[in-house]
Structure prediction request, 686 residues.
Amino acid sequence: MTSTTPPQLARPMVKATPLKPILKSSSLLNSKRTSDDAGFDGDSMESPQSPRKRQRVEFDLNNIEVHEIGIRSVDEVKQEIRKALDRHDQEDDEDYDILKETLSGKQSSSYDDEDDEDADPTLLAKRRQELKIYLIALASFSPRLGRACDGLVKSVLQCQWLGRDDQFAKVYVQFLAALVSAQGARLTQVLSSIVERFTDSRLSDWAVPNYPSVNREAAQERLHVALKYLIQLFPAAKPVLDHLTATKYPFHDESKRMHLAYVDNLLRLRSYCPDLKTDIMDLIIGRLVKIDVEMQMDLDDMDDRLTTMVAMALKSSRENRNQDEEDDDESDAESVDSDESEDEEYTRVKTAKENIEKMDSILDTLFELYTPSFADPDSDEALGAFEDLLSEFSNLILPTIKSRHTQFLIFHFGQKSERLMDAFCGTCINIAFESQRPMILQQAASAYLASFVARGAHVPGHIVVKIFEVLGFHLDQMRTLYETSCRGPDVRRYAPFYALVQALMYVFCFRWPDLIKSVPDEVDPDDLSSYLGQEIEWEPEIKDIMRRNIHSKLNPLKVCSPAIVEQFAKLAHRFGFMYVYPTIESNKRLRLSQFSAGAYSSGGALRDLSFDVNDESWQQLGSFFPFDPYQLPVSKRWIEQDYLQWRPIPGLDRDELDEDSDEEEHDENEEVEEDTATDDEAGDEE
Prediction:
């Protein structure tokens, strides 16, 4: 997402000279303009919508004028503030520093006997409330709070206002509005002080001594009432927020608790600020993809022992999560952090475990967020929500080759109706066959389309056939184009062709029953082994597509992933689709290097890089398909019914004596990304 630079709201001011107001009134607390003008009546102050049902918290900005709360009146406090500011202008800061300390909330009043056990409780309560008087009085001096008063403004913005009473919160929000009204350049500073609290989620983050505790929902509600109020008063707040939400987003190594709190607050902001809806989702999905990639790279670099340790840490964490939510927040990551070990292996396991939990929790939140929009999958609302997801997919997920789980949002919701399936498949086809697209993006789009069709449990057979035929049409066009200059298989020159052949073989391996036109009556569709040895009539175009391209000069069986080629060959042979073993055998005597152009053809460049010239795996396609089994323990509940697992076929390997050495089942496990610490269901694909 491209961050929007905060606009300059006013010119820099000289000492003690007010900036030009961006509203007519210089003080919202003492002017005739009320919160009603901004549309904040009682009914509008209900809790903003969020992905989870929330308790309504009453927080009304109306009728909060207060003339005397504590021991002194507003006029008396105004005189004190005027005196402090006047002396500050004369570089005498003694009273000014006392005023800063008072407004920071670190002391409730100028009195020092609050801890006196014999003091009158009523009197102490009044003294604790005096900070409201200071805020109300200070609002009338907002035109003087320019650059010369940066320290004072900073103290006020650091005041812990969320943990005080409702009336104080209302007074504080009105002061912020008055400050920005008179000092437009402080808009960014004020909004920043609010967005910085998006990561707060524990009572200790906002608690104030001697005040009743404020629960998380009430504190969060106050935060968003303030933000919504300022957005409605100052339209310039929107581009500033766009920038701030990106810059304040937690770093990838911050705790899961902070990430979840920040995302939850972003989603609340999204609910009442539609102008930022797209940018907020771009931000969340973009950061989620980064965590996804880092998590997968960490797991790929681990040996079996370390991934087992990660799995054990995840299991332990889930077992310890029977506490209530508050307790869980306070003990975030304790299952891994408790011994504070500095061991490198421990650190790697801890990092991987935390990244997995972040991914899991944020994705679970996003699944829940979007689900209501798809209550009627054929509605315009569902299509609109899916188009938003398609935009995130095309711009953020698809270009990230190592993304492992984020794409399952599109996988889950894309299967809700044929209309949505068509939208996703059409998007992938357009990207895969637009010549101006980078080649790697075209290959990725082919892999996503094939994986969606192959693994989508709700994708009907007629769509499988249709997609197969569409891909086959483009495959024939590529073959016609490439064969004129082809001397033999070359993955560097003809990568889109090989990616498409591999995609079709992958679809065939999972959806071959849907590619059949008719079978004898004795075949039981629920018993895959009953297809063996039967006369099967295939969809005619399907068979012709594969025959033309597999036996072409481009020789895709030499370049495509050996695991996928092997499984395709076995299924195609045993079900009478086609017989490709002679081609596979002859390919064993074929060297890919003889068809490669440039420095790599002689092997010299490879020897310089310490490559084994006899290892041709670098000249073959990888076997990545983006909808490999989803194993995040919590959020996988959303896609368990959407996913087509591999179904072993009893008797498939019978009489294949010449292939016994390859029966370790890696043949059907072309999903090389499956063997990770998140595979709670190891063996599902076997």
